[in-house]
Amino acid sequence: MKHLSITAGLAAIVMTAASACGGGDTSSKPDAAPARGPITIWYSNNPEEVAWGRQMVEAWNAGHPSEKVTGQEIPAGKTSEEVIAAAITAGNAPCLIYNTAPAAIPRFQKQGGLVPLDDFDDAKTYIEARTGDRAAQYRSPDGKYYQMPWKSNPVMIFYNKKMFAKAGIDTENPPLATYEQFLNTSRKVVAGKAAGHAIWPSPGAEFFQPWFDFYPLFAAETGGKQLLKDGKAQFTSPEGERVASFWKTLYDEKLASKETYNGDSFADGKAAMAIVGPWAISVYKDKVDWGVVPVPTSTGRSPADTYTFSDAKNVAMFSACKNRGTAWDLLKSGTTKEQDGKLLELTGQMPMRSGLPGAYSDYFAQHKAYETFAAQADRTVEVPNVANSIEIWQTFRDAYSRSVIFGKQDPKAAFGEAASKADGLAAGS
């Protein structure tokens, strides 16, 4: 993937949007940690997260008049990663961004744009107490935390009950647990003309697309492994080959489409299934009579033992921030049990808090649709925190697209070539 560049227009946006943070020094300054005063933060631009961000900022400002927080939606751009990288380059990133993709952390860190949260005496204890065992996935290779694990959207299989009924498939306990069951169910859906395609993940070439086809199934099939371990690619393993073969069969039999769909194929009734997270519940509630199950495995692993991709977004502190003491205190204030509960209520996304179902038992008792995702949230796999992370994912996606989706190369050969490149990239070369 080519390096991100900053345009004049985008530079102007980020320079004005974050003026309250000041400073162009992108080095880590532990002595700046106690500094307090006004700060600016960015949060996502979807309405639910804007609502959460505004109430969180209002609550803080009411009790801290001399440390006023200005909250803004992240400026528009091709991707959030591009906007953030541009802000780092301009030296005008806000103090905190509540929309930071874990895959981009190594790049932002390499740019000198991030503050290691370990600069704060209580950070490691706080992060690990709140997040539990999953916190280890978010440490950087130097052992430090450059991101606060914040929220996840564990992806699962949504299915259209009306389409399944039309195809003569059990709508309450559909046979989707094993690869064989999933394929046979998919064949029935298409042969019975219940839908044009059984499932329609994006065939796009973007680096993040494997997170919604290959990676969730790889996480499940391996019992929770990441794409790389100890800097070495894992996708050439027998488990990786089985996942690739499963998807290749779906494409070869035209059960999944190779075409790009401009819209939501599941919501629009073009596909009977989709791989999405709990954010989709509110989107689909008036459009689809849906059910949800874990992603399949070759042997039909128990749901209680099935992992999936986290689809997390985290919070990072940026080195242009002068008043880091305020930023750290706000970061803790916005991730208390109370604020995590409000995030859950307002967005339907899963706070990355250990023991989530028990922590908010009343909420889940009243919102049964989210209960399955809360149980899944403790069994999620993150992208590897390694050098050149985005470039590694792009390398993998190119190989997957070429071999699995479009059949232009044998998957084993394509994956082998991609693994060699990924290992070199992970080593920093």
Rg calculated over all Cα atoms: 22 Å
Span from first to last CA?
Answer: 14 Å
Secondary structure: number of strands: 14
Instruction: Please report the number of helical segments.
Output: 17
What structural class do the secondary elements suggest?
alpha/beta
Q: Helix fraction?
A: 40-55%
Taken from the alpha-carbon principal axes, the silhouette is: globular
Mean pLDDT metric = 92
Report the biggest beta sheet as strand number plus sense, adding barrel if it closes: 6 strands, mixed
Q: Please report which band the strand proportion falls in: under 5%, 5-15%, 15-25%, 25-35%, 35-45% or over 45%.
A: 5-15%
What does this structure look like?
The protein has 17 helices and 14 strands. The model is unreliable at 1-27 (pLDDT under 50). Helices cover 40% and strands 12% of the residues. The chain has helices at residues 8-17, 47-63, 80-90, 105-110, 123-131, 161-166, 179-191, 214-221, 238-252, 280-284, 324-333, 337-347, 356-359, 361-366, 368-376, 389-405, 411-426, and strands at residues 39-43, 69-73, 96-100, 148-152, 156-160, 197-199, 228-229, 232-233, 271-276, 290-293, 308-309, 313-317, 350-351, 380-381. The protein has 429 residues and is an alpha/beta fold. Helix 2 runs antiparallel to helix 12 (337-347). The longest helix is centred in the first third of the chain and has 17 residues, at 47-63. The strands form four sheets. A six-stranded mixed beta sheet has the order 2-1-3-12-4-13. The protein has a four-stranded mixed beta sheet with strand order 6-9-5-10.
